[in-house]
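Cross-posted from the bioinformatics board.
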Amino acid sequence: MGQLDGSFRSWGFSKGGTGGISMACANAAKSYGAEIRTEAPVQLVLIKNGEAKGVVLENGDEILGKTVISNLDPNRTYLKMVGEDHLDDEVLKEIKRYKLRGSSGKVNLALDRVPEFSCRPGDGDHIRGDVAIAPSIDYLEKAFDQAKYGEFSTRPYINAVIPSLTDPSVAPPGKHILSCFVQYAPYHIKEGAENWPKYREAFGDAVVDTMAEYIPGLKDMILYRQVLTPWDIEQTMGLTEGNIFHGELSLEQLLFQRPIAGYAKYRTSVRKLWMCGSGTHPGGGIMGAGGELCAKTMLKSRAI
Amino acid sequence: MNNKYDVVIIGGGHNGLTTATKLAKKRKRVLLLEKREILGGIAAGEEFHPNYKSVGLLHDTSNIRIKIVQSLRLTGYGLKLSSERPRTTLLGNNDESITLSHDVVKSSNEIAKFSRKDAEAYINYHHFIDRIRPFIDGLMNEFPPDLMKLGTKDIWSLVKKAIGLKRLGKKTMLEFMKVAPMSVADFLNERFETHFIKAGIAAPAIYHSFTGPWSSYTTLNLLLWECASTNTIVGGPQALVSALELAARSSGVDVLTDSPVEKILLGDDSKVIGVRLANGKTVSAPIVASSCTPKVTFIDFLEPNQIEYSLEHGVQNYRSRGTAVKVNLALDKALVLNGESNIEFARTGNSFDEMEQAFDFVKYRQFSKEPILDIHIPTISIPGLVPDGHCVVSILAHFAPFELKGGWSDHQKEIFGNNVIRTLEQYAPDLSKSIVCIEVLTPQNLEKRYSLTGGNIYHGEHAVDQILTRPIPSCMRYSTPIEGLYLCGSGSHPGGGITCSPGDMASEAILRNL
C-alpha cells in the first residue's frame, strides 16, 4: 500500500519527524480557511434529539457546528464523547466488542554518535533505511509468546530508524536519534495496565539490551532515553489501550466491519456525527485514507 | 490377479470403503487394496495388549453423515446410529466437571451450577449453531464448485452459497462473518466466564491442528465441528468399519488386504492404467482412486517426472503437521474422573492460557508438559473389549510434534506417556495403580502405521485455506491433473474425521466422468 512521490510502495522520512506530515496537513487546512485550536481538549459531543450539535470542551466552552467529525478511536468516540445513554443496545454491544489491545511500545534513544551495527560495521545506506531486529520466525514467535500471558517481550521485535542521518534538524550537530518501534508490549500486563509505570524502565532496558546485542557499545552512546509503554501512549495521546491503529487490524474488524457493521461508512449511529480516523476503513497507519474517504462520503451525501 | 477392473481404490479406511461400495453399487468392477492386514484405517479397532482392544485411532464418530449411512444402507449391515451426540464431560482441575449432553437445556442447567451467565450463553451458543447449520451444511456437504474453471454451473453454485448466507438473516449472517475469523478464545470469552467450561467447549477447534486457542480462525473450526457433530455410532468407529466391509463385499467389491501399493502406473499418454503392488503384481484399471493423503498419492505413488512442478509444489506445501499422540491405556478397573465413574467422553483444558501453553511447545518442536486430552472410554458402552470389570482409555493427547527436537526415542515416548498419565492423574488420582499396559503412538508411529503424512489424522490440517480448496485448487473436486487419478480420502473436501463424506463425493465425481 502507499506510494511516495510517484514511487510505488516506497516510504521516506518526513522532515522534522512524522509530525511534519501533520503540520503540512494543518497548513493546507488553514490555507483553505480552516480554524485550528490546540490545547482544546473536547469533553463530549453535544447531542440533542439524537443529533450531534457541537462539542463541549473540558474548560466548559461550547462550540456548535452543523456536523461533528471525530478523529478519535471508535471506543473514545462512542463511549466517552457520545456516551452510553445515546447508544442503542446493539451499537453499544458491538462497540464494546471492538478489540483495541495495544501491543507495541516506543523507545527513543538520543545518541552521541552514529551507531554501528556489528553485522555490517560503518556508515552506509543500510542505516539510513529501517532496521529490523527479527533474526528468525521462532524469535518473533517467542516474543509474542510472552505477550500472550501478559508480559512484555524480553527480546522483542524492533523496527529502528535513525532519522537524524537523513534529516539533521531533528538532533543537535553530531548527535543522533535511534527511534525504536517495539513489539510486544501488551497493554494488558498481568498486574493490570495501570501498573505499567512500574515496568517502564525494565521495558526500556529490555529494548536497550536487545539493541546492544547488535550495536556494540550502545549503552555508552546513550545521552537520554524516552520509553513509551502502551499505557503512556494511552495517557498522552488518547489512544485507547495504547493501540496506535485505533483498533486491531484483524479480519473481523476490517472493511465493512470497521469499526462495526452497519456504521462502517464514516457515519456513526448518532446523526451528524462522523468518524474519520484509523478506526474506520481502511484502518491504521499514516495513510490519510480514512480522513479522505470520510470527506468524500460527506460531500457526496451532502452532509454539509 | 492381473485382472482388469473399472476402478482400483487404494486404502481401505472408511472413505476408501465408501467410494468402493458406491461404485460397486453402480455395477462397476472395483478392487480395493489395503496395505495392512485389517480394514478400517484410522477407524479400525485393534488389540493393543492381549485381551485389550481399542476402538480406533480417532474415536469421535459424531460427525458421521446420516445421508451417506442411509444411501449405503449400512443399518442393513448391522450399523446402529444414535441421533444424539455423545455425552461429553468437561474436566476442570479443581475437581470440577460438567457433563454436556445432546439436550441443550439439560446441559445448560448443569452449567448453571457454576454460572448463570454461562448457562444462558450456552443456550444462545447452540441457537447460533442451529441457525448457521443450514449454511454450513450447504458449504461442507455439497460437491465443491470448480474454482479453476468457473463455468456457469460453478458460478451458480457460488451464488447459491451466497444466497444461503443471506438466508440466515442479517443478524446471524453478520454475526457469522464477525466471529468466523476470530480466535476461539476471543469468541468464547465474549460469551462465557468459567474457564474450564470455555476451554472444554473450545477444545475440538484445535484438535489435530497446528493452532492454539488464541490462533486466528479457530472459531471457524469450532463452528464447522459443532454443526457436523450430531450423531453417535453405537459401538464406535469399528462398528462402522464392520458395516462398511459387509456392504462393500456384498456389493461385489473385491477386497485385498496385506497389499501395499507401490506405484500408480501411467500409460504413454500419461493416463492412469493401473497400479503395481509391493509384491510386484500389477492390476490394470483406467481409474484409480486414492484415499491416501495427497502427499502419499502424488509423491510416493508417482515418479517425479510424472507430475507437473506446480502440482508437486502445491502438494509439498499442503500442511499436514501431526500434533496429537495416541495413548491407549488398559486398566484393571473402571476409571473414575473427578469422582464420576460413568464418563464415556471427556475433555481437559482447564483454561485458554493452559491450552495455549500446551500448544506453545509444539511450535519449537517440543511436546507439552501438560498435554490437553481428548478422552474416550469405550468400555463404558462396549464392555466386551476387555476382561470383566477392566477398562480401556483411548486418549488423543495434544500437543506433540512429528519432528521432535532430538528425535523420538523410546525414552522420549516414555516421558510423553508419563506426561499424559500425570495430567490425567489430576482428575483420577489413583490411576497409575490400575494400569495394565500403556500404548503410545507418536505422530511418527501414526505415519508409519496408517500412512498419515506428518502423522496428521485429518490428512492435512483444517486451516481455512485448506478447507475451502482442499487439498489444493487443482485437485479440489476429487479429480486430479492426472487423467484417471482421483482422491477420495480425508485430504479432500470436506476434510478429516469419521464422516465418509470425501469418499462419498469422490464416487460422485468418478461416476460423472465414467
